[in-house]
Amino acid sequence: MHQQNRPKHSASRRRLLRLGGAVAVAAAVGATVPFIHAGDAQATVDNSSRFKLDGAGGNPILLKSLAANWVLQSFAYDNTHQHIYFVQVNSVNTDPDHVGDLWITKTDTAGRILGSMALHRFGHGVSIGVEPSGSGAYLWTEWKSSAGGFGTKIGRFKFVDGATLAPDSAAVQDRTPQLTGVHSPQAAIDPSTDRVWYRYKTSTGDARIVGYKLADAVAGRLTSGYRLAERALPSRGSWGDANPFQGYAVYGRYAYLLEGVAKGDAYISVIDLNASGQSLVVDRWPTTAGQSLSNREPEGMAIWLSPAGPRLAFGFESNTGGKRQASVFYKSQFV
Question: Which of 42, 184, 288, 335 has its CA 20 to 30 A from that of 155?
Answer without folding.
Answer: 42
